[in-house]
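To whoever is on call:

I kicked off a structure prediction for a single chain this morning and the downstream step that reads the tokens threw a length-mismatch warning. I double-checked the sequence; it's 369 residues and nothing unusual in it as far as I can see. Pasting both halves so you can look.
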Amino acid sequence: MEITRILQSVHRLPLDPPFQASWDTRPRRHFDLQLVRVETDSGLVGIGAGDAMPGFAGHEDLFVGQDPRDLDRHFRVIENLSFHYGRCWPLDIALWDLFGKTLEEPIWRLLGGASDRVTLYASSGSLRDGQELADLAQAVREEGFPALKIRFQRPHWRQDVAVVEQVREAVGQDLELMVDCNQAWRMPWDTALPWTFKDALLVAEYLEDLDIYWMEEPLHRGDYDGMAKLREAVDLRIAGGEMTRELHELREIVARRCLDVLQTDVVCTGGISGLRRVAQSAVDAGLEFTPHTWGHGIGLLANAHLAAGVGGSRFLEYPFDPPTWMPERRDFGLTEAVVANDDGQLVLGDAPGLGIELDEERLAETRIG
């Protein structure tokens, strides 16, 4: 079997009403799907999605004519490209999808088969007032989700904490709550400085009193000493690592016990091939591995297969912020949206590869590049 062609395409869904993400000062008026397909002489096609893979165009010859099953070889080339250019990891996802189709096995089983499902937490993305967020928490609980993530980024963190207090009062102990502080990275136009260690420690002490399951991204992504110190100073879990670019950085975070919960996304760092090793080392070290998954359903499924196959994930992120952010919007381009069952779980099943089918008609309608 040989790779015959690698195709990239961009598909755009207008967002009306716009989606106002807490971590972005600009409202999002469209949502793009960056799709990559790996075609073979056998007729099988692997599918991946994520970033636009800047710099990849012109390097297709590094893969065409190669056996798609040589995953380690391809991983090393993609890692080189991602160092010199942009994140090319959606190609690794497509190769794993193809690998599963070739063997007629789901990816989670090929990664160790720890489980065929993951438990989801509903991940809100917008900033709401306390009552609106309390209503969302009630709705999330009724949908069967066992946990909800609340976003910070109001004008002052004390306002954020007050909202969390209102939600905790509304749901009691019936719902696990996580908090994303969004201090590790910024959008290109956002020049705000991240919290200092003392800021983060003070907020952590308030959140600890509210029985928050984890405090996410409380410090700059490179502040390893601060994260490790914060983790030792409080009992609530410290989470992060979602946008860390290099695998060696993740290995350092695990080795230095900077975090309780490692949240790296296969779309952003390492793909399935590289991140499976980091995930296993985190689990072996007694840490939770719970990937970030804010993007299209293809990336969500890739992270779900990894988390289920390796094990060690109590929760997996599931973007859910009705009415502006729902599975039908997030997963446009698929024949079926990725949805939870009544128990708040994502069951992956036995379909080969990622187990997805593209809606070619919708893709043709929304294609812009």
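Update from on-call: the warning came from a stale cache, not from the record. Cleared it. Sanity check on the structure: Residues 239 and 261 are 4 Å apart (CA to CA).
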